[in-house]
């Protein structure tokens, strides 16, 4: 609004106030000043045209009609000079590979606290477990009998791993320590000092004498196994680093954290190569595929598959509605996930199909017994599965040798929709 003939007549006060308000609104709220109404009136757009009407005439343009459901779910294909609507093919899950179901075959007791971790020796003759009772126990795999108890940790033992090339056992715990045990002398021969808080996970490089650990101080550390030197301190996570894995090819170190991110690390430089932010909740477990250049990660929102070395997202494995404490995989492409509620889910890697669900049975005779899976580890053959649980027991599962595709068919159909990728 403009005041004319200012020399003759002064603008009324209400006009001056309106102008002042309009200028102020445009300056301060310009980008959001003209917001559409919740229920806008029907209006036809105007456009300049060079049609048969007068030159420069303004004519209404009809708003395009919304596509019908049939048109939205179809694609236009030109066949023989004519355009035809063909229905789009819905994304379907490929037929999963059949795997025999798993069943409980043995329960091993001996710990007096939550069993937190396990590892097999290279010969598959024995396995070791660490628990909240501060003990590391060595068990005969064939009979399930206790062979040896190692004492030294002064708090919960959170991780154990056995070297494939040396007679060494490595352990870490909530006492901030990382220890190397000589299994020929059954005693600690090295300590690795550096973590400022509890150490939650440990792993060995498959070909180098390198040890990696991670913990509650939001760091991962790379150690020289022999000299005890802290080669790198891998910083970048903003919360507890709950899981760490090492592999031969780059990225040689993979970490998952409570900050909901996964980081792929350059081992030589000690720097982050890629940070994956697809998960929305804490990542407590990652596991590298034994034969493919890929890995899997577990979080309460989803289990996700990734391609290495770039960290490209492959697919979700959805349905395990629990805090995923642990993941494991064997050479037959069976992925297994364990939850804090005692649930164990078995998956087909290629299709992401969940072919079996088990609920652990809490063993009686223990005070404060509860269901909870802390660690799942396949033996070297991939035909046995060891479960470390909150009822202070170790459970061993095996495949059902009597099962066939006829006795245990897949509950799968060709039209089974695949879950969306994100």
Task: Report what the structure shows.
- The chain is mostly beta strands and 422 residues long.
- It is built from two helices and 32 strands.
- It has one domain (103-399): YVTN repeat-like/Quinoprotein amine dehydrogenase (Methylamine Dehydrogenase, Chain H, 7 Propeller).
- It has a four-stranded antiparallel beta sheet with strand order 5-32-31-30, with no helix packed on it. The chain has a four-stranded antiparallel beta sheet with strand order 6-7-8-9, with no helix packed on it. The chain has a four-stranded antiparallel beta sheet with strand order 10-11-12-13, with no helix packed on it.
- A hairpin with a 4-residue loop joins β11 (168-173) and β12 (178-182).
- The chain is globular and about 105 Å long.
- It starts with 12 loop residues before the first helix and ends in a 23-residue tail after the last strand.
Per the principal axes of the C-alpha atoms, what is the gross shape?
Answer: globular
**Main sheet properties:** 4 strands, antiparallel
Task: Assign a percent range to the helix content.
Answer: under 10%
Domain module count: 1
Structural class: mainly beta
How is the CATH topology named? Methylamine Dehydrogenase, Chain H
Strand content: 35-45%
Beta-strand segment tally: 32
Cα-based radius of gyration, to the nearest Å: 31 Å
Strand order of the largest sheet: 5-32-31-30
CATH hierarchy class name: Mainly Beta
CATH superfamily: YVTN repeat-like/Quinoprotein amine dehydrogenase
CATH architecture: 7 Propeller
Mean pLDDT: 86
How far the N terminus sits from the C terminus, by CA atoms, comes to: 52 Å
Low-confidence stretches: 3-8
List the total number of helices.
2
